[in-house]
Amino acid sequence: MRKWLFVFIGITISLKAAAQVDEQASRAFINRVIPGGKADAFIIESIPQQNGKDVFELAGRNGKIVLRGNNGLSIASALNYYLKNYCLVEISWNTDVKIPASLPQVTGIIHKSTPYQYRYYLNYCTFNYSMSWWDWERWQKEIDWMALNGINMPLAITGEEAVWQDVYKSMGFSNKQLDEFFSGPAYFSWFWMGNIDAWGGPLPQHWMDSHKALQKQILERERSFGMKPVLSSFTGHVPPSFKDKFPAAKVKKTNWDAGFPDVYILDPDDPMFETIGKKYIEAQTKEFGTDHLYSADTFNENVPPTNDSTYLDGMSKKVFNSMAAADPQAVWVMQGWMFHYNNKFWQPQQIKALLNAVPNEQMIVLDLYSDAHPVWNRTDAYYGKPWIWSMLQNFGGNISLFGRMRHVAADPAIALHDPESNNMRGIGITPEGIEQNPTLFALMLENVWRDTPIDADAWLKDYAHRRYGSVNQQANEAWHILLNTVYSGGLTEGGPESIIIARPTLKKTIDRVLTKLNYDPKELLTAWGHLIQAADSLNESDGFKYDLVDVTRQVLANYATPLQQQMAAAVNKKDRVAFEKYSTDFLQLMDDMDALLATRKDFLLGKWINEARANGITAREKNLYELNARNLVTLWGDKESGLSEYSNRQWSGLIKGYYKQRWAMYFTQMDKALASGVSFDAKSFDKQVKNWEWQWVNTHNNAYVDVATGNEVATSKKMFVKYGTLAQQANY
User: Fold this and answer.
1) d(Cα 98, Cα 264) in Å, to the nearest integer?
2) Per-residue pLDDT tens digits for 256-310
């Protein structure tokens, strides 16, 4: 996957045909979603599945709204349909909900069944880029959102480090040896995937205990809706001391090539592999129960030692047997990412060998990147295995307007009806980060209850009506432009970020920070203008205010590049006066972006840091978690990290407190060089800035607020007056 990072995904088995609706749980859900105690306005009834798949109905009776479904998930989906189509309410991550005081009545019967047995959600990376510090309250909101949108197969890997502690302690490993194994909590995704050991640790015992309890809450709630969570399994990653404790074991050393020490992987051919895999699933089942779904990927962005089909067949059998030894009903959940990422290695013969070693109904493949790089259509739909069409979005948790809207609107249904798609069983969303681009996610999830392509243009008009509370022609014009610019996607792996995020440079682009635009930025300026014109009419809509800030942010982020290039031209001409002007303007732009983003809780560094600290019960724990939080979104590793800026964020606090400070240091050194007529000492600055970055990462000063300040509309209008003409005249 782009920039070294991985996505590790999983999948599921058939759902029970009988209707299973817990009325008390559904009423509690309605009370959570709809404030004001309106649950009594709803009647909840059970109906059976339709053709083995989930179904819901919406009707009216005696002045009340009837929600029917075969499980809690279908009841929730019926409620969401009612809210969207009758109350004009769009529930998303980034907005507050306003329910009409008088609930609209329903006439007739709305009947919806899903064509998809599986609706998958999440990605190993999401658990860190977005979810690292979530408490039960935040998880509860997310699970409710999953239910509203019909998701029935969530990846559920919180708390698994506690299970691994139990397994390895039962094998005689000491706390000290495990301290050299477990990573800090912001890095679990890459620890679980066997990329790193210990970074960001040592992991406190309180974290393991509290998050084991949190996982039990998560699973209980997901299962109460009828969801089938995907748990983890053993893929060979063992503690560094394993090679010393078991010298006869077949342990291979591997490196992620990202600046971290080697990790150790137990060869599936070793007899201990199945033993440990069985131990883990037994221990996990004892703590968390099971729905028989286990994610596993032993070759994630790693090339196997040989392309011999016999070897690959044998490896596949042994990985599956390590699950089935503990759970004969085990279903191996495998992502198809490697078949795209390492496509030179994974030729048809190799793919067939890996997949055909496992019974068809005990493996499901996630076609991870269907919206841009589908693999199903060049592997004979995974040679008979059930598979899921998926949207991969948001590498690194970056902040950027980006997506492939027309693809996610049409391609799932097109694939479903393609005779070549064979065993396509579902659709999924596999983002590295969430809580951004809410419109794209809403559009993708519109597919859950339909089997025909969506007209993206018409859908966006309805969406804007719901999200903003009224029809507004200016808003519709803006969304038409957004659909055909930032949301036209192309084949780029991720959206454009901003040069302000980069470690200071005169270059237009650098590694890890994407600045190339695949659309005309001046068209985005036109969309911005439409939203500004709509602002007075829509300024009571929280959804509109979020969108206005986000579009304003992207415009300013884009404008940073021509401004930086004017500065670079001044340096090349040794024009100190021009350099001082443009460098001052550049720093001011960052201040303005910081002030803009401070108006929304969605864009606050302080929120991220304070949520991290809240997980600790001692000062030492709080400081460790803050270190993890600061490090992940900046350096990612040590001060020489090759992953620096991978998880960059355009957040208030981070722009002014981190990115701006680096650029100010750079400008000071560059100005001195221009004044003295000597060459800029890039090596000296590189050392200086890396030392400063490392100091910032290790600071604990509570300097960043977690409460929004300022007015979104007023600040956006101010930015439009200040930058509208400048951005229009800029040379991109």
Assistant:
1) 52
2) 888 999 999 999 989 999 999 999 999 999 999 999 999 998 776 667 889 999 9
- Cβ proximity of 307 and 346 under 8 Å: no
Rounded CA separation 306/350 (Å) = 10
Residue 604 is given by DSSP the state B
Q: Is the CB of residue 267 less than 8 Å from the CB of residue 252?
A: yes
| Tokens standing for residue 394 | 């948001």
Which amino acid is present at 91?
Answer: I
CA distance 76 to 225: 8
Residues 270 and 250 sit within 8 Å (Cβ to Cβ): yes
Cα 88 to chain center, whole Å?
A: 27
Q: How many CA atoms lie within 13 A of 588 on its CB side?
A: 10
Of 550, 426, 527, the C-alpha closest to 481 is 527
Instruction: Name the CA dihedral angle for 658, 660, 664, 670, rounded to a multiple of 10 degrees.
Output: 100
Tell me how many helices (H) and strands (E) the chain has: 27, 15
Cβ atoms of residues 423 and 388 within 8 Å: no
Nearest-5° angle of CA 185, CA 190, CA 195? 135
Q: How far apart are CA 31 and CA 54, in angstroms?
A: 23
Of 304-318, 422-436, 559-573, the one with minimum mean pLDDT is 304-318
Name the residue type at position 659.
Y
Residue type for position 566 = Q
Distance CA 53, CA 70 (A): 9
Encoded tokens for 732? 């991109």
Q: At 101, is the secondary structure helix, strand, or coil?
A: coil
Spatial contact of 323 and 352, defined as CB atoms under 8 Å apart:
no
- Asked whether 499 and 567 are in contact (CB, 8 A), the reply is no
Strands (E), 277-423: 293-295, 331-335, 363-367, 387-391
Strands (DSSP E) found in 326-423: 331-335, 363-367, 387-391
User: What are the distances in angstroms from CA 474 to CA 144, 463, 513?
Assistant: 32, 14, 32
What is the β-pairing status of strands 363-367 and 387-391? Answer: parallel
Q: How far apart are CA 395 and CA 433, in angstroms?
A: 7
Distance separating alpha carbons of residues 588 and 660, to the nearest angstrom: 9
Cα 461 from Cα 445, distance rounded (Å):
16
Distance CA 35, CA 15 (A): 31
* Terminal alpha carbon distance of the chain: 28
CA triplet 300, 431, 155: central angle to 5 degrees? 70
Locate the DSSP E strands across 141-197. Answer: 153-154
473, 437 Cβ separation under 8 angstroms: no
Instruction: List, for residues 471-487, the tens digit of each pLDDT value.
Output: 999 999 999 999 999 99
Question: For residues 402 and 394, what is the distance between their CA atoms, to the nearest angstrom?
Answer: 8
Residue-wise pLDDT for 95-117, tens only, equals 988 899 999 999 999 999 999 99
What are 608-612's contacts with CB under 8 Å, separation 24+? 608/133, 608/633, 608/649, 608/651, 609/704, 609/706, 610/704, 610/706, 611/133, 611/134, 611/135, 611/706, 612/132, 612/133, 612/186
Q: Nearest 5°: CA angle at 575, between 572 and 580?
A: 110
Asked whether the beta carbons of 536 and 717 are under 8 A apart, the reply is no
Whole-angstrom distance, CA of residue 150 vs CA of residue 530: 33
Sort strands 64-69 and 42-46 into parallel, antiparallel or unpaired: parallel
